[in-house]
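Why predict the complex rather than its parts? Because the way molecules touch one another can change local conformation, and only a joint prediction can capture that. The input here totals 877 residues.
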Amino acid sequence: MRKVFDFHGGIHPPENKYQSVRTPIADAGIPPQLIIPLSQHIGAPAVPVVAAGDTVLKGQLIAEPKGFVSVPLHAPTSGTIVAIEERQIAHPSGYQAPCIVIASDFNDEWIPHSGTRDYRNLDKAQLIERIRAAGIAGMGGAGFPTAAKLSVREGVKIDTLVINGTECEPYITADDILMRERATQIVAGTLILQQLIEPSATLIGVEDNKPEGLAALRSAAEGTAVEIVEFPTKYPSGGEKQLIEILTGKQVPSGGLPADVGVICQNVATAVAVYDAVVLGRPLISRITTVTGEAVAQPQNFEVLLGTPMSYLLALAGYQPQKNRRLIMGGPMMGFTLPSPDVPIVKTTNCLLAPTEIELPTPTPAQACIRCGMCAQACPASLLPQQMFWFAQGKEFEKLENHNLFDCIECGACSWVCPSNIPLVQYYRASKAEILQLRRDNEKSEQARIRFEARQERLAAADAEKEAKRAARKKAAEERALQAAADGGEEDPIQAAIERAKAKKAAQVAGAADENELEKLEKAVVTTRKRLETASGKLEQAKTEGSDLVAALQTGVDKTRAKLNAAENALHDYQLANSDAPMENAAPTDAAQAAIERAMAARSAEAALSPSEKARAQLEKLQVRLEKSRAKLAESRDSGAEEKIIEALESTVERLSEKIAAAEQELQATEGA
Amino acid sequence: MTEFITQYPLVTALLALVSLGAVFGAILGFASERFRTEGNPIVEQINEILPQTQCGQCGHPGCRPYAEAIANGEAINKCPPGGEAGIQALADLLDLEVIPLDEEHGEQSVKKVAFIREAECIGCTKCLQACPVDAILGAAKQKHTVIDSECTGCDLCEEPCPVDCIDMIPAEQEGLQTWHWQLPNPVSLEVDIIATDAPREEAA
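Output of the joint prediction:
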């Protein structure tokens, strides 16, 4: 006999298990419609790979996993996909979630599938892949993807594999009946897990209130390396950490995983699912669910297809809704009230409890905490529920965390023993959620702070760079000035030339002191004209759109036009007044004007030309320019000009030759056409 | 040596104390140089409490400047995004009285994120320059969009938008992802367990 240990606390609520084990597992059959939620497990929801209208066979993949902690989904029976839409699911919130809805064709036609009877030839990666592909998620209640749990990190040695057949929660008998009827599959599945993990000990832990199940398992495990361990009944010995302590005496550290103490724990139903997946090649499409409570006529266990509406299953068991006040998924301790009986069975639905009011009365109103300390005695995680209750009321989250709130397994033992009927677990659940929310917020604000600071730095760096450039330019200018001052005595030809040019300019400016005036007037004309153009454009648009702004825009345009006229007149007057001013002054403007006019004339002449003529003219012009550039280049080379200038000229010549080539091509094309 | 001590006890005591003082003074002087704290550590702590929305509703250009201002004695109730909880945390940290939020600087509201109606965006980049956390993606003449996971909901991009195509929408929709258990109602407030617990007016 193996030594078994005890864990702190625990309670002994009425078991009420006998009602549902009087008959063997019944087949629930095929309901007309199956609703398969995309998220039946912990982790990312699966992604549908079918569309409405597709026909699917039993066992066909209908949604694939997204990421490592996720599982695929398979069609529980053959039929047609009716829709992929939001449906109400089994969740305490009563919210809807995306589901794949299948209309059964009642043929129950399997997709071709095959398993491997001789799984010992498969290596670990293949085994894990099969478990993953079969969509197995922990069937004890939490629904953690089994493949992810079995993928032990490198360097972690697992010495004990624990198979959980405890089922400590009252009323539920799904695992009990599984052990009675399918002990060989459980042991076979356990052996597969054993091959995968290679532990030094493999234990199946069962409470002593299931003698039939124990006997069946013992005979099935005969001659194998699987040890069946029996231990006294106590709630919640089926909790993962509690069971590990019972079987090995080791405590999983706070915030740690069972792997930290060299243990991996799996449920018996998960072991059967692993056996089905590896040996039979069947994905997880059905499970055993207990339907019990005094509001059902025949409490019993069903093998039920995933996605079956609960109302369908309840009808099979003879559900009497008038006797039932609330329908619970799970057991009376950890289960939750369902929002409606039409939600579907999922991978984690181990029990449907339909109690009468007398059986499971509405909790009486909570009274004040009398600090009796019974909750602390009952807590299987050795926490201080009473202290945490006060902190939860006062929202003292830091203190809650210091009191290891996150080690609470929400088993409900504290609420059960509380003489004041305080719903303690609800306080802890709410506080946990709020702390997680706060953590997320903090993370986000930290992120925002980092981004803000990075931005500040970037802006500061850009400013500093600009400032540095400015300083450099200033310094260079000063240096030049200094240089000039130093060189002032000597005859510098460049400086002299610059000065000559300056002097000339100054003379010119002096001669045409009011040239600025002219420029100003010209500018005014140009800008006003531009404004007029945009304004009339807007007016046009408004007119076509029939906007009610037309009138306003019209006055705007008129005003601008008046302004333009005034500006033009002013310019004209000015030009007239200055026309008889010294000729050298007028000459440059006239020259520029003449050049512009020439260009305009040339352009209008060009417009009149045919395309081929245009192209030829263009080519000729380019050739002339090329000649000029070449001449300049040769000249500067001869005179030994700066390299930069030569380079620039060379590139100009190159560009021009390219342009000429393009123009030639164009010419050919136009002539060809 | 012993003779000197016995003959001039006063001088010896003085010498001993002076030398002790000199030695410890030197150690303290060295330590104050060696372990000098950079900046004001309280500013860091205050900054950690502030919500980092960088919204400027407090009248400072960002959370850190406000943290600095608080360290210099400014009121702690000017941060609407931090809300009452933030004021509480600041009061705890600085050992001050909890005061109600200054409504002048805005009201506490649900967390929001900016949303650009891209059909209307003209690609002017004005909102990009306004965003304190670089959470808007875009370039000149390109449609801009908000990276909602980085948006702090500070509202600073809304005002510069010339075509008013930015909306502030609630950050989290009520749904399965955001649902969580709520705290139960306070103990025994709803039901009168004993008849005499009922309010006096009713009993009378």
